[in-house]
């Protein structure tokens, strides 16, 4: 199976072992008490073994982050219990800084706990453009922006352009990843009219160098964060 981890709004894809990854996340969160983490258990798992996998994941998550004493680092279940998402500030103050999304088939073997959010509530951006016709991914940006006009509260900007294979994935990543800031900006401008924002950014091969990897994600994340501050808190970021 695969474990999808988001630090802030930066997404990184890992493989097993899950336990060592979760422990590393736990250590990082304890070293960074003002940060939150989003963990998504996707549909990429062994279907013939899903019950065992689900129970094992649940046990590990509960052991690490379900001691609900006021000061303990824990998983956030406010959306399930109140019907609204907490602000990141609220999550930090309550130390409920772990947000977990679990594929419904896995969650069904866990008894659908309140902290296991359904990933289908996140609207991914979509496109029908094939890479060969994308002008090195440039046509992807306006195409993705169209799908940002959705009433769903959470949106993920996905710079995966897999149609029109075979094209080396690293070639696609190098072309598309450097446009993540443009895509984030275009999507945010659509969402702003709905009083919504961009919540997640996804790129392929984030470990690529320079503008094709983490640097591109950081720039896009910083842009979204600054826009959120200016729009939703009326803060002049330039004056800070």
Automatic annotation (TrEMBL):
Which Gene3D superfamilies does this entry report, sorted A to Z? Phosphatidylinositol (PI) phosphodiesterase
Q: Which residues form the signal peptide?
A: 1-20
Keyword terms, alphabetized: Signal
Q: What SUPFAM superfamilies has UniProt attached to this entry?
A: PLC-like phosphodiesterases
* Matches recorded under Pfam families: PI-PLC_cat
Chain ranges passing through the membrane = none
Listed under GO biological process in this entry are:
lipid metabolic process
- Which GO terms label this protein's molecular function in UniProt? phosphoric diester hydrolase activity
Name of the protein: Uncharacterized protein
């Amino acid at each position: 199976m695969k474990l999808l981890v988001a630090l802030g709004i930066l997404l990184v894809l890992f493989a097993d072992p899950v336990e060592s990854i979760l422990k590393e996340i736990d250590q990082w969160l304890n070293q960074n008490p003002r940060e939150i983490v989003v963990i998504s258990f996707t549909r990429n798992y062994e279907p013939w073994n899903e019950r065992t996998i689900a129970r094992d994941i649940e046990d590990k998550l509960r052991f690490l982050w379900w001691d609900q004493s006021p000061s303990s680092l824990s998983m956030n279940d406010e959306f399930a219990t109140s019907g609204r998402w907490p602000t990141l500030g609220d999550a930090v103050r309550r130390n409920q800084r772990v947000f977990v999304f679990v594929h419904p088939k896995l969650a069904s073997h866990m008894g659908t706990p309140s902290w296991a959010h359904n990933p289908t509530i996140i609207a991914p951006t979509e496109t029908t453009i094939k890479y060969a016709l994308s002008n090195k991914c440039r046509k992807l940006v306006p195409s993705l922006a169209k799908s940002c006009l959705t009433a769903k509260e959470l949106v993920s900007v996905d710079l995966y352009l897999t149609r029109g294979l075979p094209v080396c994935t690293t070639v696609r990543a190098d072309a598309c990843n450097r446009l993540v800031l443009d895509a984030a900006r275009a999507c945010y401008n659509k969402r702003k009219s709905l009083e919504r924002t961009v919540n997640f950014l996804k790129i392929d091969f984030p470990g690529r160098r320079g503008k094709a990897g983490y640097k591109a994600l950081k720039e896009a994340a910083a842009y979204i964060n600054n826009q959120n501050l200016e729009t939703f808190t009326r803060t002049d970021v330039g004056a800070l």
